[in-house]
Specification:
Helix 1 packs antiparallel against helix 2 (about 155-165), helix 1 (about 5-20) packs parallel to helix 5 (about 215-250) and helix 4 packs antiparallel against helix 5. The longest helix is centred in the middle third of the chain and has 34 residues, at about 215-250. The protein has helices at about 5-20, 155-165, 170-175, 175-200, 215-250; strands spanning about 35-40, 50-55, 60-65, 70-75, 80-85, 90-95, 100-105, 120, 140, 260-275, 280-295, 300-310, 315-330, 335-350, 365-385, 385-395, 400, 410, 415-425. The chain contains 5 helices and 19 strands. It is an alpha+beta fold and about 425 residues long. The protein has an 8-stranded antiparallel barrel. A 4-stranded antiparallel β-sheet has the order 3-2-5-6, with no helix packed on it. It has a 3-stranded mixed β-sheet with strand order 4-1-7, with no helix packed on it. The two termini are about 30 Å apart. The chain is elongated and about 85 Å long.
Length: about 425
């Protein structure tokens, strides 16, 4: 059961990305007519077919402009690329509402060699529905950042699926062979390091004749290293799936949904604790799911730390509540802080044991524990609605805290945990 959650979450991420539109602004109302900007297309001496693409490289308008003609398009404010029908970019423009139309002229000859220079709009005085001015609004000329063809839709499905099967192959499908090999080698390095560190935690390591058992400090460092390596592996695996989709969809600069209403987060929390026997320390793990609602901008509350674990001797379920405030959301990086509390309920499997008169009672058959905590979170967006997350957390249980693999912490044991995972925003 515990190992099933990360597998399910990784495949859910892959299929959700493959099925998602490039930019799904759910529920966003269309701009008012007065908020549109004007783009004037000049046919020049020869005329021809012009296409207008948005920041996601999607065609939003197309016009056949005759020689000497001018066609004015009404578009939402933003950045656009104007190209000829054969794919040659002739201008990149930024449109603003209530400003004079931005002019783009058909070149007199097909571009050759380096990409043709492009015009950038400059700030202009407020004007609405005015005729096209005599002078050009955009006068500064610069070369475009890159010359791209329209992204192929089939790659949006194939690339993330390939990366889910073999890390890095989605990037190779997108034509980024070097980047794909880097992703693959990074994944293999983290996986190999985690396997090597895990082998050093062999319980029989100190059992050979003439050797001494590991100290707690050495075991704790080794267990912490294993936790960092596996956490990094999880984040790299999720990141390269998202990156494969982003490149296939033409998303260069993701725009996270700061006005989202709901977020779903999957996390693995991990810490290091004592262990009976040798090695003397072990990695304590806990997989959980959180559902957070943004009630006002930056402030979210919701159901958190929902999870279940079944070991050989006990079954544990948990859930809690969390209040979260996002104090930084500039670009693709978000940072925030949260306070929460988790309640665990646990019970032993099998029949209660009978004990002799006067003997010590066995472990409690059923128990409940409250675990308050405070945490920071760092979220990095690779696509518009998906992030990879890092959660440093400090907690103090008011009872025995249970983890996977029958690990537990005693009452009032102050604990530092490190969480890794992914989030999706609606």
């Amino acid at each position: 059961m515990p190992g099933t959650l990360p597998v399910i979450s990784s495949w859910a991420l892959t299929w959700a990305l493959a099925a998602a539109p490039v930019d799904a602004d759910l529920g966003a109302p269309p701009p008012a007519a007065s908020d549109f900007a004007s783009l004037a297309l000049h046919g020049g001496p020869e005329g021809g077919q012009l296409e207008v693409l948005d920041h996601n490289a999607q065609i939003v308008a197309s016009a056949a402009v005759g020689p000497g003609e001018v066609q004015t398009l009404q578009l939402p404010p933003g950045s656009y690329r104007v190209r000829q029908a054969r794919g040659d970019t002739i201008a990149e423009v930024t449109l603003a509402a209530h400003a004079p139309p931005v002019e783009v002229r058909m070149p007199t000859a097909p571009p050759s060699g380096p990409a043709a220079p492009v015009a950038r709009a400059q700030p202009a005085a407020i004007a609405t529905n005015d005729p096209v001015p005599e002078g050009p609004v955009a006068a500064e000329i610069e070369a475009p950042a890159e010359h791209r063809a329209k992204p192929k839709k089939w790659k949006r499905v194939v690339s993330p699926l390939m990366s889910a099967l073999i890390p890095g192959t989605g990037q190779m499908v997108n034509g980024q062979v070097g980047k794909g090999f880097g992703m693959l080698l990074g994944t293999l390095a983290l996986a190999g390091g985690a396997i090597a560190v895990n082998r050093s935690l062999d319980p029989l390591e100190g059992a050979a004749h003439g050797t001494n058992a590991d100290t707690f400090n050495n075991s704790a460092i080794t267990a912490a290293g294993f936790g960092v390596l596996t956490g990094g592996l999880q984040m790299l695996y999720a990141s390269q799936i998202m990156d494969a989709y982003a490149v296939a969809a033409g998303i260069d600069h993701p725009t996270p949904k700061t006005d989202h209403k709901l977020s779903l987060q999957v996390a693995r929390m991990a810490t290091v604790g004592y262990r009976v026997g040798d090695p003397a320390a072990a990695l304590y793990r806990d997989w959980n799911v959180s559902l957070m609602f943004q009630v006002v901008r930056r402030l979210s509350i919701g159901l958190s730390d929902v999870g279940m674990s079944m070991s050989g001797s006990r079954t544990t379920i948990q859930a809690g509540a969390r209040v979260h405030y996002r104090f930084l959301d500039k670009g693709r990086l978000w940072m925030g802080a949260a306070l929460g509390a988790m309640v665990q309920g646990t019970w032993a499997k099998g029949q209660p044991q009978s004990i002799a008169f006067g003997a010590d009672a066995p472990e409690t058959e059923a128990a409940a524990t409250v675990v308050p905590y405070g945490q920071l979170d760092l979220k990095l967006f690779i696509v518009n609605r998906w992030s990879v997350n890092l959660w440093p957390r400090f907690s103090v249980p008011f009872g025995t805290r249970r983890f996977l693999d029958d690990h537990s912490l005693p009452t009032h044991a102050a604990t530092f945990e490190l969480g890794t995972g992914v989030g999706v925003y609606f």
